[in-house]
Amino acid sequence: MTVPASPRPNPLTIPTLAALQARESAKWGRFEPDVLPLYVAEMDVEFAPPVRDALAKAIATGDVGYRTGTAYEESLVTFARERWDWPSLAVEHIVGVPDVITGYVDAITLVTEPGDAVIINPPAYPPFFSFVEGAGRRVEESPLTADFRIDLADLEAAFQRATAGGRPAAYLLCNPHNPTGTLHTRAELESVAALAARYGVRVVADEIHAPLVYSDATYTPYLTVDSERADAFSLMSASKAWNLAGIPAALLVAGEGAMEDLARYKSVPRHGPSQLGALAQTAAYTQGGPWLDDLLAGLDANRHLLGALLKEHLPEVAYTWPESTYLAWLDFSAYDLGGEDPSEFLHREARVMLNSGPMFRLGGAGHARINFATSPAILTEAIERIARALR
Ligand SMILES: Cc1ncc(COP(=O)(O)O)c(C=O)c1O
Predict the structure, then answer these.
(1) Cα separation, 242 vs 284, whole angstroms
(2) What range does the domain containing 93 cover?
(3) Are both 28 and 99 inside the same structural domain?
(4) In the chain, fewer beta carbons within 10 Å around the N or the C end?
(5) Is 243 in the pocket of ligand 1 (CB under 6 A)?
């Protein structure tokens, strides 16, 4: 008689509440102990076993010197071929960078000059704005449409404004989009590539969330559509999908037409990823597929649970159904909070922490971002608390 294999556990149900509350990183470490934190993009999971084993081996043997070789780059090449059907990606196009934010700032700095414009689609990940402005570039906003798609007509107008007088400009694309979980379609990305070619805008695509795509949706890597000039960059990392923000390591990928820029980038001294970060993220890409599938099943269940809870307890909150990521964009504007930011109101009154909508800039007022990468029990408790506070 064959014994049926026991189903693998949902990674989101493994850490206990007490274990989470003992964590010191931002999600559980920043606010008062009675607050349920559903904000910053960390997940309530333990390590994927192959990642834990890779780290344990390095720590047991003291293998924590400087990184060398291209194992991390190669692991992305294999993952991209197998998971995203992207066979042409090659190691020569990839360079390691300390983390994704450093990577997109460096790419933008490489192709623009101080005072040049960088186009961003709000509502968008707040460090898009802060780090771009911190690097001395000017943000040109092109808001997403009401259903959170790229507004191609508005994007063209933004490209036109940004490049007026022949100035260089960059477009910081978020694919998949944070905070809405929008997956840009191949057709939309082809239109973006055509506009970028027409106006000479350099695309820098932040694709950190790319492994976090549900089975009913398709992710299109930006560099696979940009065949006309192929002078774009993409930023990849395993850190969001395997919850490795504390041991970051990212990869800057250059399209064929950006290879000279990449050579220029490599010729200047700079830091790459740390050894521990690269080891962990290589293990994630090469051996973390089954864990990722289990995680995605748990996140998919939470995506549905969140929809059901909102329908039952908070029917006036508009929930944008995420096609990817564990983040969702909630519209609280039907509630009269006297003009207060919903996240501040809910922190105080519900003891639930969400991300502040206005930080995501245009379109953010009255909204908040929720991180549903937690156990169904915590998610349920958080929504019930919010419902009681808004009653
Ligand atoms: C779109 C996006 N880019 C970058 C980051 C941060 O990447 P890193 O920690 O590697 O700098 C995040 C984190 O949530 C993100 O959502």
Answers:
(1) 7
(2) 63-287
(3) no
(4) N
(5) no
From 121, 130, 208, mutation site for ligand 1 pocket: most ligand atoms within 8 A of C-beta: 208
What distance in Å separates the CA atoms of residue 315 and residue 205, rounded to the nearest whole number? Answer: 35
Q: Which two tokens stand for residue 98?
A: 């300390």
Ligand 1 center from residue 367 Cα (angstroms): 20
Is any ligand 1 atom within 6 A of the Cβ of residue 207?
A: no
CA of 126 relative to ligand 1 center, distance in Å:
10
Q: What is the pLDDT of residue 5?
A: 72
Rg (CA), the chain: 21
Mean pLDDT of successive 10-residue segments in the chain (391 residues)? 76 98 97 97 98 98 97 98 96 98 98 98 98 98 98 98 97 98 98 97 98 96 88 98 98 97 97 97 98 98 98 96 97 96 98 98 97 98 98 91
Residues 318 and 337 in one domain: yes
Who contacts 325 (Cβ-Cβ below 8 Å, separation ≥6)? Answer: 176, 178, 181, 209, 212, 240
- Residue 165 inside a domain? The answer is yes
Residue closest via CA to ligand 1's atom 14 equals 41
CB distance 174 to ligand 1 below 6 Å: yes
Q: What single DSSP character describes residue 209?
A: T
CATH of the domain at 132: 3.40.640.10
